[in-house]
Specification:
homodimer; about 180 residues; mainly alpha; about 70% helix
């Protein structure tokens, strides 16, 4: 948003920050995320310390941040479009997690319920910006390249978790004491 | 080096750039690396296009670049100290690769031979800077944190390659046509 010169776009985009940081009377998405973390059994301090964040996950997130920092606001908006698939995924989690993971405190699901409606609205805004800006064939190819990059970020995060928690490969299998 | 205010340190560090970029009469390390790539069967164009670089590898390299950009020159020098182990590793490659990979053109090994002596000299310089700068217990802990970060960069690269080429996990198992 810091790269966006259009007041009207900023006004609309601002809602995402309010959603996450919260306002008086609404604790916001970050707080809901912390509660979800607590619902799966972590302490607030444990989550905020980021001690469990795998290096591969961190590097992928940082790649996204650095992209958004340098990109134009239209490019950054375009990169948010993986959210197109978010509402359906959130709904699936709400439907199936209570069965799969009965030990998760149902209070925690508030995060997904909250994102369900927000993501639907956000993605429409991102889509409007993208369709408005990327018009020529060349621009459309660029938009696809941006989405490819975003998918690579998400896949890299999953890969890092897969190797750590499914393949339990050293040194990153949540055994920090084994790190060299 | 751009963050270094000490002319004498820059003069010495400059040698690393000359080593890699080359000078008249010496093609330099980047050229030797390209020849190593050709020796294992890739075309120069293929290597330079970076088409085979896995996203997880790219994100890890970028994390290192971004670190070096923001860090003080002493911190950046400290992060190079994983090279302490490089000469021994290069020597092992020279000793064993011709047996393990007889299909690699031996011309390509020039890269490792070149790095063998350069790394010995470089690491002494990096070690001098680090021992000179990180003196208190707190600073030493910081130096260890920097090396931990550097190891995380290297491990993340290996993890990305492991999941792509050993576990052959989609989407990144060198089948770009399968990327979604």
């Amino acid at each position: 948003m810091a790269n966006c010169s259009e007041r009207d776009v900023r006004r609309q985009w601002m809602q995402r920050i309010l959603d996450h940081d919260g306002v008086d009377g609404d604790d916001g998405g970050i707080e809901a995320w912390l509660r979800l973390g607590e619902s799966v059994g972590m302490s607030r301090q444990e989550i905020q310390s980021q001690e469990h964040v795998l290096p591969g996950v961190r590097f992928a997130c940082d790649a996204y941040l650095n992209f958004a920092r340098r990109a134009s606001w239209q490019e950054a908006a375009c990169s948010s479009l993986t959210e197109l698939f978010a509402p359906e995924i959130h709904q699936k989690r709400l439907n199936t997690w209570p069965d799969h993971y009965p030990w998760i405190d149902i209070e925690g699901y508030q995060y997904f319920r909250k994102r369900l409606s927000e993501a639907r609205r956000d993605v429409q805004h991102g889509l409007d910006i993208t369709l408005e800006h990327f018009k020529t064939r060349e621009q459309q190819e660029q938009a696809l390249g941006i989405l490819q990059f975003k998918l690579e970020v998400l896949w890299s995060m999953l890969d890092a978790m897969q190797i750590a928690y499914v393949y339990v490969e050293p040194p990153f299998h949540s055994c920090p004491e084994l790190r060299i």
